[in-house]
Amino acid sequence: MAAQKSFIIKKKLAKAKKQNRPLPQWIRLRTNNTKGNDKPTPHQRMVVNLNIALWRLKRLINKRFLQIVLISIFLITLLYQFNKSNLTQNTIFIDYTKTSKEWIAHQIDNNSNNVSNLSEFNRKLFSILSEFKPVELPQDESLFINQEKCKKGEHTVNDEEGLETLSYNSLSACFNLTPEYKQNLKVMHQNFVKTIKEIPKHMPETLFNKDKGIVTVGGGKYSIILVTMLPILRMSGNTLPVEIFIPMSDEKYDKDFCENFVPQYNATCVYMSKFLSDEIVQELNISGYQYKLLALLLSDFKNILFLDSDNYALTNIDDIFDKYIYKETGLILWPDLWRRQTSPDWYDIAGLEYNLTQRVRFSLDDLTPPSQYINPEENSLEYIKEHIPFHDLEGTLPDLSSESGQLLINKVDHFDTLLLALYYNIYGPSWYYTLFSEHGSGEGDKETFIGAAFSLHKPYYQVKTPITFSSYISDGFKGVGLLQHDYAQDYELYQLAKEQIQMSHLSDFKYDPDYHVEKSFVDKFFKTNKYGNDRCDVLFVHASFFKFNPFTLYYNKAFLDTEGKHVRGFSNTHLFRNFPEFELINFKQIKEIFCDTETFKFPFLDMEYEAAGKNNGHSAETEKRNIYVD
């Protein structure tokens, strides 16, 4: 202790001497450095000891303060490093706009399809998609299924019985995530949505140069089908430019198709390798339906009509982007045959609320007051959860489910919708396809567009007029074509129905046990007469089964009855607008391209025959088919 005091006093003496000032009294007393022979009194010594104690306390406080500051700096640095990736995601698009503007300012080739600009955006987008990857799906999916309460069943708009399979209880039981899995998907979904909302509103304008056009996906077997789709498109009088996106794995098969066949029809092949690397394709496991989303994203058009390669436009649709409801919403969808089977868990993951006590529609009828079809004696919460279709309730996606063989979208207005739909498709095979469809018919990308728009509270219009089938009978019903209707005409009918219902008295809508959605709504407002003809014209025929691929037609013995005799495949051809001989036109095209001239090489077709262990036999059968149909 004495040594410490001596050290303190020596420091004070040195400091006073250096600054040429008098010593403090307590030091003079402590060192006997006083005038005369006065010795310090006990009181003075107490003052000395008190000052030494205060100095020690001050020194200790300074030391502790320094420690606190250093610890705080360390914690802040650690926290920054922990959140660095998230911080990067929140600023990535803002930083990108600077490089985007610089690139555009120095752009020389306006026909380069914005490759550098869009590729840079995609590089960062794919990084974010990887960043917000949800947990892997467990190998045993039965973990999420309550076998006792899950009631499987698919229903069309006409069905009246068995609708409890579409109820909240049943859909919940058929795919019900555990809390841990649901929380992971919810956090990843929220983070991705939060990130895409940071994208500057003007960015889509800088990414895409062209106004409007048609987009489809080719490659391999899809390019073979386009051999019939493109001629029909141009024979209809359509002049809109066409972009055909070719996946990287198919580029080597389609050189002749892209360089020699496609240009005849004012169409262009766009190779995805310009935008995607092998690493991205492998990391995100891109295949199948995901190419459709990438084609929509990578296309240089701002307004797109997307058509599957087996979807045929039956009339001139050059003005398809000019209709009121498209301009108003920017997204037009068409219905599928089936009622919706989306899991309630998806709503929780997307942060969407629904009301289990409030029924607001009956299937696709969202105009008739619910009082007409709600039985007051069967309206308890328990009854609704067990018997009423979940998607008739407030806050849920409307029926019917969507059929995505055709799609109209304004990419500038719905850029975020497109990005979220891409997220749903990238993680569709693992999670979102099942969340949207619960393994129902056509499960895939079909619900991701309406789901993304609904989740982001963006406007859209889905056609009300149900699908019309084109079919034939041979050992049962064979549906070969889905006829989809004019969306603008459909919207006009919908508005007329709304006006008519609003003009009625509420007393006209008392409970009617005989209410039926087809008879009371569809037939009443969307059919013209007792013959049941649709009021809306047909725009497209989605010839998805059988596709006009010579190998598929030959191998599957398409359009033959059980005795091997030819039958007319497509019925209702009076609805085919400009193409009552739709089937004959396509078979003549197949005969010319694949049988007679063989001007164009399609290596993928040869591979199909080789894989099946079959010799090329389509030429003879195509000749027979042409004779029969003609």
Describe what this molecule looks like in 3D.
This protein has 630 residues and is an alpha/beta fold. It has a domain at 2-33 and 46-76. Helix content is 46%, strand content 10%. It contains 24 helices and 13 strands. The chain has helices spanning 2-19, 25-30, 42-82, 84-105, 115-131, 168-174, 179-196, 203-207, 221-235, 255-261, 278-283, 290-298, 324-329, 344-349, 381-387, 415-426, 428-437, 448-455, 487-503, 517-526, 550-555, 582-596, 603-612, 618-629; strands spanning 210-217, 242-246, 267-271, 301-307, 311-313, 331-333, 355-359, 393-394, 406-410, 461-462, 468-473, 477-485, 538-542. The strands form 3 sheets. The chain has a 7-stranded mixed sheet. A 4-stranded antiparallel sheet has the order 5-13-12-11. Helix 12 (290-298) packs antiparallel against helix 16 (415-426), helix 16 (415-426) packs across helix 17 (428-437) and helix 16 packs across helix 18. The N and C termini lie far apart (118 Å).
Summarize this structure briefly:
The protein has about 625 residues and is α/β, with parallel strands linked by helices. Helices cover about 45% and strands about 10% of the residues.
Give the beta-strand count. Answer: 13
Number of helices: 24
**Low-pLDDT residue spans:** 80-113
State the oligomer. Answer: single chain
Distance between the termini: 118 Å
Given helix and strand content, the structural type is alpha/beta
Main sheet properties: 7 strands, mixed
Pfam families: Mannosyl_trans3, Ribosomal_L39
Subcellular location: Golgi apparatus
Family: Belongs to the MNN1/MNT family.
Main location: Golgi
